[in-house]
Amino acid sequence: MSDQRKVNEKSKNEQLNEFRTEDHGKKMTTNQGLRVSEDEFSLKAGERGPTLMEDFHFREKMTHFDHERIPERVVHARGYAAHGEFELYESMKEYTRAKFLQEPGSKTPVFVRFSTVAGSKGSGELARDVRGFATKFYTEEGNYDLVGNNMPVFFIQDAIKFPDLVHAVKPEPHNGIPQAASAHDTFWDFVANNQESAHMIMWHMSDRAIPRSFRMMEGFGVHTFRFVNEQGKAYFVKFHWKPTLGVHSTVWDEAQKINGKNPDFHRADLYESIEKGDYPEFELGVQIIDEADEFNFDFDILDPTKIWPEEDVPVKIIGKMTLNRNVDNVFAETEQVAFHPGNVVPGIDFTNDPLLQGRLFSYTDTQLIRLGGPNFHELPINRPVCPFHNNQRDGYGRQTINRGQVSYHNNSLANNTPETSSAEEGGYVHYQEKVDGRKIQARSESFKDHFSQAILFWNSMTDAEKDHIIQAFSFELGKVSNQSVQQQVVNMFANVNLAMAQEVAGNIGVEQPQQASKIANEITKTSPALSQENTRKKPDTRKIAVILGDGFNEKDVKHVIEGLKKQKTEPEVVSSKLGTIKGKEGKELEVDQTFTTADPVLYDAIYVIGGDNLQEAFWKNATYYVNEAYNHFKPIGATHEGIKCLENNSLSDKPGVITDTDISSFVSRFTEAVSEHRFWNR
Ligand code: HDE
C-alpha cells in the first residue's frame, strides 16, 4: 500500500475531527464567545414587564432557532447515513485508471446515505418505494460519487420527464394526500400514460420495494458508465453493490404495521448494527462490456430501463465496503451531504444515457437552493481529502481564505497558477467519444421496447414472489379512485402477463383484459439473479423475540439464548412487564421489551417458552405474537409451555414452526429455520 493511501484511510475522519466540538462540561457562551450568565429569563423592564430588544442573548438564541431548518431534498428527503471504508480486492487497471481501483488491499474512506424517494423527511421508512443508495468515495484524486438506487432500472428514459414523474408520485397537490405512497391516482395515471415505466413498475411492485433492512439491499448505479484505462481505451460499465447478508424483504402487511410501530425501523437497524459492531458490508461488482460489443444485445445498453442480465454479462466482484462508524451529528453530516453523479475521477466517465445526462445538471442545481449557495463543497462532510485550488471565489458562507492577489486564469502575476494538469499528471480528460448528429428532440428507436425485460423479471420470480406482485398491484390500484386509470394500468400489464393482469383486474373490479401480447408468450427467458429466493441466507443479526414469563426453566432458557447468540442471532426477552422475571429456581432474568413496547412485526422470528403459572393475559399476548409471525411467514419456535400455546392455536406442525422437547436439537433446528427467513408454503 502506498504511503498516500495509508494516510487516506484515516484522513477523512481526521479532517472531520478539525470541525468536531464537544459542548459537554463547558461554560455556555454566545456565538461571539461571551460567557452567558442567564439562559432561563429574558431581559425585561420589571419582573412582569415587556422583554427588551437589547437582550442580545435572547435575540441570538431565537434568531438561530428561527433559521435552523433548510429545505428538505425534493426527492430522497428521508435518509440515513454512515461512514465506512472501501477495500479493493482486485486491480481494475486493465479497465480504468481510477487510482482507488488500482492496488488490491487499498482502502478508501466512504460515506453512504440510504433513503426512500417519495416521502417527506419525517415519513415512515417502510413505504413501498425505491431506496436511494448513494456512496461518496473520498479518493486521493477527489470525491467520486456513486449515486445509485436499490433497483437497477428507472421509471423513465429521459431526465426531462423527471419532474413529471415526481409530481405524479408526490402527495396530490389539491389535498396533500397521500404521504410517502404511490397508491394513488396521479402516480398510476402517469404509469399508464408513460409505458417506459413498465419494467421499473415490476420492481416497484416486487418485494424489493419493502426491504427488511438497508443492510440487506442491493445497490445499482443504474446507468451505463464508462471505464477508461491508462491507454485511453474505454469500456461500458454498470456498478452493483451486493450485501453480504443477502437481499431480504418484509411483507406488505408487516411493512405497513412497522411504519406505525417504529417509523424509524430502517435507520435504527443501521445505527444499532454499527454500534454493536455488526458492520454492514456490501461487495462492489462491475459488469463490463467492450465498446466493440455495444450493439450486440437485444436491448440498447444505454437505456436506463434495461438491465444487463447477470447470466449474460457476469458481475465481477472487485471489492468490499464496510460501514463502521455512525455520524456524530445527523444534520451536519447526513443532511448536509451533497451527492452528485457528476463527481467523477479520472478513469470513470459518462455515456449518452439521456437520464444520466440530465442528472448531471440537476444535482448541483438542487444543492444550490438546499444548501444555500455555491460553497457547499466546503462543508466538512463534502470536502475532498485532497487539497483543492481554483479561481472560484466568494458567495454565501465562504470559509476558505484564499490568499494572494490573483483569482483568474491566465495570469502572469501568479506564474499562471493554479495550473492545469495533463492526463499523465492526473488531470481529468473527458473521453473523446465521437458524436455526430442533428439537433433533435426525439427518442431512439432502440429505446422503444418497454415490455421484454418486464416479462423477463416476471418470468424470473418464484410463485410466492409473483403472488406478492399481484397483491401489490391489487393494493395500489385498489387505492386508485378513477376507474379509467385502473383499467388502463391493467391493460398495460397484460403486455407483461395476461393471467397476472386478469387476476389484478378481478381483485379491483375492472374488466379483465383478454388479449395477451405476442411477446409475453414468446419470451421464456429467466434471470435467476433477479429472484430473492436465490440470495444468501444467514441467521446473522436476525432478531428473535423470546417470549418468557415467571417460572421459566433457567437451565434450558440459558442454553437456548446462549445457543442462539452463538449463531449470531439477536434474542430479546419479551414479557408482560419491564424489570426482571423469576425462574423456577428463583434466578432472575432481565426483560428487554414488553408485549406493548415491542411488536411481532419488529422481529424476524418468535420463540415461545413461557413459564409456570402464567396469567391468561400473558398467553393472550403470546398468541398475538405467534399468529402475527405466522401470517408474515416467519419462523416460530416453541419449547416447554410454549408448545401448548402453539397447539392451542393449531400452529404446531406447520412449515417453519419448530417445537421440540430436546433443547439441544431445538437450538440447531430453530436456527436453521431462522436462516430460512420466511416460509412461503404456509
Ligand atoms: Fe436522483 N436526485 N434524480 N436519481 N437521486 C436527487 O439531488 C434526479 C435518479 C438518487 O442521499 C436530488 O441532492 C433527476 C436515478 C439518490 O442525498 C435531485 C433524475 C437514481 C438521491 C435528483 C434522477 C437517482 C437522489 C434531490 C432523472 C439512481 C439521494 C436531492 C434524470 C441511479 C442522494 C439531491 C442523497 C437525489 C435528481 C433519477 C439516485 C433533485 C433529475 C436514476 C440516491 O438532484
Question: In short, what is this structure?
Answer:
This protein is of the alpha/beta class.
Question: What features would you describe in this structure?
Answer:
The chain has 682 residues and is α/β, with parallel strands linked by helices. The protein has three domains: 79-382, Catalase core domain (Catalase HpII,  Chain A, domain 1), CATH 2.40.180.10; 458-534, Up-down Bundle (Hemocyanin, N-terminal domain); 543-676, Rossmann fold (3-Layer(aba) Sandwich). It contains 18 helices and 18 strands. The protein has helices at residues 3-17, 56-66, 162-169, 185-192, 198-204, 252-261, 265-276, 331-335, 354-370, 452-460, 463-478, 483-493, 498-508, 518-522, 554-566, 616-631, 641-648, 663-676, and strands spanning 79-88, 107-116, 131-139, 142-149, 219-220, 225-228, 234-243, 281-290, 316-326, 348-349, 543-548, 570-575, 579-582, 588-591, 593-594, 605-610, 636-638, 657-659. Strands 1, 2, 3, 4, 5, 6, 7, 8, 9 and 10 form a ten-stranded antiparallel beta sheet that branches. Helix 4 (185-192) packs across helix 12 (483-493), helix 12 packs antiparallel against helix 13 (498-508) and helix 15 (554-566) runs parallel beside helix 18 (663-676). The two termini are 53 Å apart. Bound molecules: CIS-heme D hydroxychlorin gamma-spirolactone 17R, 18S.
